[in-house]
Design goal:
By secondary structure, the protein is mostly helical. It has a domain of 107 residues: E3 ubiquitin-protein ligase SopA (Pectate Lyase C-like, 3 Solenoid). Helix content is 21%, strand content 4%. The protein has 3 helices and 3 strands; from the N terminus they run ααβαββ.
Length: 209
Amino acid sequence: MFVQRVFGQRVLIQRLLIQRVLVVIGLVVLAACGDVEVMSEPSVDVAVTTTVEDAAPTEPAPAEPAPTTTIETTTTTTTVPVTTTTVLDVICIKTTTCQYANLVGVDFSRLKLDFINFSVANLGGASFVGANLNNSIFIRADLSAVNFEGASLKNADMTASVLTAASFKGANLEGAVLCDVDLDTVLELTKAQLDQVKKFKTKGKVYCP
């Protein structure tokens, strides 16, 4: 026991000596460096200024006026000729008296219409293809654009009628009366047909009752 105490005291003394030596060495080092000032680097404060410019509100560009489109509307009125007879017209065909009747565009093709009086009737655009019109009367009737193709007009009276663009292709005009009419605009009328006509009027020659 005595030996252990002595040994422990020696160790403690050695530690104290070592600590004193280290303190002395530290004092010496501090004395040697006494003229040296340790300065920390000055901190530099950098002020960052951010300038934000408010953009001036942009005025909207004046809107250009939209192009004006003008649509012209053209109204076309078409007059459709009557293509069917009225009750009165049908009766006139049955009674053979059709004076002043409105028979525009009626199709009389291949009908037996002899001895019918069509005086002053409106027959514009009507069709008498192959019809029997023997001894019928068309005095002052409107026969514009009427188709008499292949019709029989024996002894028919067309005095002072309007024959503009009327077609007489192959029609039989034997003994027909064409007095005071304009034949310049008539269609499909041959010299042989005119030779069969009883009475007619041409330029410079009048042969009427």
